Amino acid sequence: MSLMSSEAVQPYQRIVQDVRDKIRLGQLTAGAKLPSTRELSEEYGVAAGTVQRALTELRAAGLVYSHQGRGSFVTETASETTEDSTARALKALEDQVRDLSTRLDRIEKERNG
Fold first, then answer.
1. pLDDT digit string (tens) for 65-80?
2. Closest by CA position to 67, among listed 21, 100, 36, 44
3. 83-61-77-38 Cα dihedral, nearest 10 degrees
4. Is 15 within 8 Å of 23 (Cβ atoms)?
């Protein structure tokens, strides 16, 4: 389940997150064809434009590519991209924790010194 509450998530973002999750979990692999716009709009109960917006976002993130008349497919690098972004997020968190620890040590030294 995503950390965001479903109320705050736009319908197209829900589709984007679901596709990201399926790639990360290996349910969608490189070259896999996504369901059609019509199938996705029925599955999520949204308009075709909402699905198109999600696909645009997924293309911009480098997770899918589209062939006119053939559909949308998972890119070769999609799983690496999601792993890379997870690794970057973890690194950022580690840096933040290190920074906070340093600041806390300094405050405690000032208070006790």
1. 999 899 999 999 887 7
2. 36
3. 110
4. no
11 contacts: CB under 8 Å, gap ≥ 6: 44, 46, 50
Regarding pTM above 0.85, the answer is no
Q: What is the pLDDT of residues 85-108, one digit of tens each?
A: 677 777 778 888 898 899 999 999
Question: Please, are residues 74 and 44 in contact by the beta-carbon 8 Å criterion?
Answer: no
Interatomic CA distance for residues 46 and 75, integer angstroms: 25
Q: Which residues pair with 74 in a beta bridge?
A: 64
**Spatial distance between the Cα atoms of 11 and 34, rounded to a whole number of angstroms:** 17
Q: Which two tokens stand for residue 17?
A: 């997150």
